[in-house]
Each structure stands twice: as structure tokens, then as C-alpha cells.
Amino acid sequence: MSDPPGVERPYQIDDEWSEAVFARRTGKVGAFLTPYLRAGMRLIDCGCGPGSITVDLAQIVAPGEVIGVDRRAGALMHARMLARERGIANVTFEVASIYQLPFADGSFDAAFTCAVLQHLATPLAALKEIRRLLKPDGMIGIVDGSSTTTFRYPTSSLLKAWDGLRALQRAYNTGRPSETLQLRTLLREAGFARTHASGTLATEAGPPAGSPEDTRSAARNDLIRLRGVLGELAIGQGWATRDELEEIAKALIAWGEAPDAFYARPSFTAIGWVA
Questions:
Q1: Residue 143 sits in a domain of what CATH number?
Q2: Which of 66, 27, 1 lies closest to 206, judged by CA?
């Protein structure tokens, strides 16, 4: 069962994996939203992680203010360092829950969230809270990777088992089945008057992995998860044994070195307008 609004389940994911993947993302992830942004806007990035997207959004709306929020203080430490290194002064970062954002009603022109709703027990409650913050002509941009479909070549029973473990982790984290989020439905139910959605193929960190460098990187990121929180969760829940995980690890390493390897998964975007 899903938790009631305002209650967050323990989020079982590796900080090391999160840093490796999310830090590689840039403002290009939000390219679908940027045509609607303008200088002087006030924008909130919910679940901003290490801020690699947030700082790019801040440059787009400068001199407008951008606030990045995340419940992980460690991620925000990296975000603040990045902003200082880039010399971006119109962005700040705060620890906050997406279910209880510490800002006044109608205080933002725009909101953004990347790969967050897919991990929540109650994504509708989060969207309603974000909607509360937006002005009458405000908008939200969403990037979502909730689909458990993967395109991997070459594949094997071990690699398929690995992709299955990731789906099991998603269901464990959220308390609901691993399924593609109905973004337009969620936006409408959250109170957005107009919506638009689209999709493409990507990886967790960016474009599809179709070069030797990209497939090695994708394999390394998977190994971080396998040898971290997901691996321990799989053993604890009886989804796999330690020996089975080691066999999967060998298969991932071999896949990352395969000369024709390719990996991608669906990624979805949506925009919701208040009015």
C-alpha cells in the first residue's frame, strides 16, 4: 500500500551511484522546458541532487532566483560547491521534503523535477504540493524514467535478472507496482489545467549507451548498485544470493566491454500549466 501524503518511505539507493549518475546530468535534460523559461523567473528544482541541472537552469532564468531542494544534505553540499565553482550566484539549495516544501503559496513561476516522481510512494501528493507553490500562470517540467522496459544488447539470462532486480527495488521503495507513471493524469489530478507529454530513449545519466566509453560507464554504474544498497537489499529480501550477484557482476563487466553493446530505456517528459 502507498503511504499517506506527507510520509516518505526509506529510499533504498546508493549515494555513490546517485552521485555518479546524477552529477553527469546537465541542463540539456530540461531542454523540453527551456523554451518556456525566461529571464527573471523564480524557479524551484525539486529533488535536485548534486545540482548539475539546477545550476544550468539558474543561468537560463538569471537574474531570477532558483532554489534547489533535496532531502539529502550530502547531495546539496556538492550542489553548493558546484555553484561556487561555476560562479553562479542566483541559486541556493535547501534541505526539504517534496511533500512539505517550506515556501509560500504562489511564490514560484516554474518548477522542475527530474527522476523523482518515479521513486515516490505518492507522486500525486508531491505534485499537489508543487502546484501549491506556483503562480496562476506557472508551470512544471517533469522528467520521468518510471518505465521498467530496457533495451540491452547483447543480453542474457543474467542481465535480464539484473534488470528485474532493479524493478523489484523500485516496487520495494515505493510500495506500489513498478509501472510507467501516467504523467498527464497525475498532472490533471494535481490541478494543472493544461498538459503535454513526450518520450525518448535514454539512460539514467543521459543519452543511450552506444559507444565503448558509454557502455563501460553504464556497466560501472550498475556495479555500484549491485555491490551497494541494491545488492544487499536483494540478498536480504531473498531475490538473489551473493553468488548469483557475483555472476551478474561478471556478466555486466563482459557486457560493458562487448564491441557492439547498446543500452537504453524509455524516458518521459511532461509539462503542466496552472492555467
A1: 3.40.50.150
A2: 27
Integer Cα distance of 246 and 16 in angstroms? 19
DSSP state of 209: B
Give the pLDDT of residue 170.
87
Residue 3 forms part of a structural domain: no
**Interval 155-167: pLDDT, tens:** 999 999 999 998 8
**Structural contact between residues 90 and 66, judged by C-beta atoms closer than 8 angstroms:** yes
- What backbone torsions phi and psi does residue 72 show, to the nearest 5 degrees? -100, 110
Q: How many CB atoms lie within 10 A of CB 118?
A: 21
Q: Using one digit for the tens of pLDDT, what is the confidence trace for 72-81?
A: 898 899 999 9
Domain count, the chain: 1
Which residues 6+ apart lie within 8 Å of 70 measured at CB? Answer: 47, 48, 49, 76, 79, 93, 95, 96
Query: Would you say residue 1 lies in a domain?
Result: no
- The residue range of the domain holding 145 is 15-273
Amino acid identity for residue 44 in this structure: I
Alpha carbons 30 and 49: distance in angstroms, whole number: 15
- Helices in the chain by DSSP H: which ranges? 15-22, 54-61, 73-86, 123-133, 157-174, 183-190, 212-226, 229-237, 242-257
Residue 232 cell numbers, joined: 544487499
List, as one string, the DSSP characters of 230-270: HHHHHHHHTS--HHHHHHHHHHHHHHHH-TT-EEEEEEEEE
Residue 39 resides in a domain:
yes
Report whether pLDDT(85) > 90: yes
What does pTM read for this prediction? 0.88
Do the beta carbons of residue 273 and residue 192 sit within 8 Å? yes
- Band (pLDDT 50/70/90 cuts) for residue 13 is very low
